[in-house]
Amino acid sequence: MHHQIISISQCYHTIIFTALAVLVSAALFFLLSRKGKTKSKRLNLPPGPPGWPVVGNLFQVALSGKPFFQYVRDLLPKYGPIFTLKMGTRTMIIISSADLAYEALVEKGQVFASRPRENPTRIIFSCNKFTVNAAVYGPVWRSLRRNMVQNMLSASKLREFKSAREIAMDKLIDRLHSEAEANGGVVWVLKNARFAVFCILLAMCFGVEMDEQMIETVDQMMKTVLIVLDPRLDDYLPILSPFFSKQRKRVQQVRKEQIETLVPLIEKRRRQKANPTSTAASFSYLDTLFDLKIEGRKTSPTNPEIVTLCSEFINGGTDTTATAVEWAIARMIENPSIQSKLYDEIRRTVGDRKVEEKDMEGMPYLNAVVKELLRKHPPTYFSLTHAVTERVRLAGYDIPTDTNLEFFLPGISDDPMLWSNPEKFDPDRFFCGREDADIMGVTGVKMMPFGVGRRICPGLSMATVHVNLMIARMIQEFEWFAYPENGKVDFREKLEFTVVMKNPLRARVNPRV
Ligand code: HEM
């Protein structure tokens, strides 16, 4: 689900589409320019870089060779906290200041709480927007979100899944030990963190402990889905869709595979529930979906819809959380003094026993490290795309419906007007109380790694527990060093489904005794 806006800068596209761009522009310019003119006369859109006829800024973005977040970052000094990019037939408005985010998502929250039109691939995978993240603001969204929050993510429900977390944490530490032993003390960070959180979410979703083979199968399938969900050029220029029939077939094929992988799990659980004498596993997200009542609809979700909802649950929390842990370990390696301060707090709090989630509240330094982590490295650089329910004004500009609204998160959490030395990773800013931020954005916005307002990430509390727990266990069990020895950590970013480290982090670990 967490979302890459555009990644169509692959070289092979370059030549073909430059040529196509010129042709298409010329052909359509005369057809559409009149219509465009009358429309934009009425609207006072935010400023933005001048684009080409019809295709707008699409090819400038695609041919820039930069990841989308970098393209946006480079435009900020020139165009300020709200600007427009025309991406073919889609209009995108990028918002990057705390004040405007607060005004839109909190003060005018109801109007800004919707989602835009989806591209055809996303329509297929979201079962026509039948997910919490893709549903427009309305009764379906309310039903699905309420179900997910009340039955899975509320504080009391979260406690019920403690043992799934413990099992996954122990497994994580075991895997790190054996990987280190087999590789001269060196481990991959992202891969292991990802596996751990994936295990937790699978157990919560399906209510069963799966063997490694099954976990691997589901994981591979999820990755394939994320790849075909990458936006394509024809999503922005539907007129080009005849050139993408192969890709569309592939989409159908992958959707079929997704259904074929997950429906047997769903059916197995359905049978277990129908036959209470069998040893039914613990409560799961799946159980909440079988008879789910949706406002305004008579039928409960179909199997393909359940596949979609389960995938959302698992995808929403996997890469985001694992990414946070990778950046955290990178920062611990870069700053041995922060690492040892954290280790000292763990020792002081739990002595020789294993650190557990009940300890987290009494560990203010850990909490400060995690908050600073989410400020400096929000796992996604854009919140999910918003849309308004009716035309409104923001910062003196018109925001039409059917416009993609993108909130650029580092624009807020790196703002030198809001933070002292924003480029510095410094947990003490929170620990010593010099600075603070309401991460929910209720009293104001200074950072919003989970979004704010009605669409705020419903997994916020669970994600925070997962990140805290993983970091605490990993620092308690090992001391972390750079690899290669004495090397500097490379903090360059790369856009995957989240913003990960360009060179996936490898680290040398010393088990603590
Ligand atoms: C560190 C981990 C995570 C981060 C940084 C994160 C971040 C976000 C962000 C930025 C949004 C968009 C908010 C908006 O549209 O304004 C979002 C939405 C969402 N997240 Fe997360 N998330 C994380 C973990 C999770 C987890 C663990 C789950 C659930 C299992 C989850 C499920 C969702 C869902 C369902 C939405 C859509 C909400 C809606 O549209 O109403 N996320 N998340």
TrEMBL record:
Binding locations of heme: C457
Family annotation (InterPro entries): Cyt_P450, Cyt_P450_CS, Cyt_P450_E_grp-I, Cyt_P450_sf
Listed GO MF terms: heme binding; iron ion binding; monooxygenase activity; oxidoreductase activity, acting on paired donors, with incorporation or reduction of molecular oxygen
Keyword Membrane appears in the UniProt entry: yes
Transmembrane segments: 12-32
UniProt entry tagged with the keyword Cytoplasm: no
Pfam families linked: p450 (PF00067)
Cofactor requirement: heme
Keywords of this entry: Heme, Iron, Membrane, Metal-binding, Monooxygenase, Oxidoreductase, Transmembrane, Transmembrane helix
Gene3D superfamilies per record: Cytochrome P450
PANTHER family: CYTOCHROME P450 77A4, CYTOCHROME P450 98A9
Similarity section: Belongs to the cytochrome P450 family.
Protein name: Cytochrome P450
Organism from which the protein derives: Nothapodytes nimmoniana (Nothapodytes foetida)
Lineage of producing organism: Eukaryota, Viridiplantae, Streptophyta, Embryophyta, Tracheophyta
Protein's gene: CYP77A62
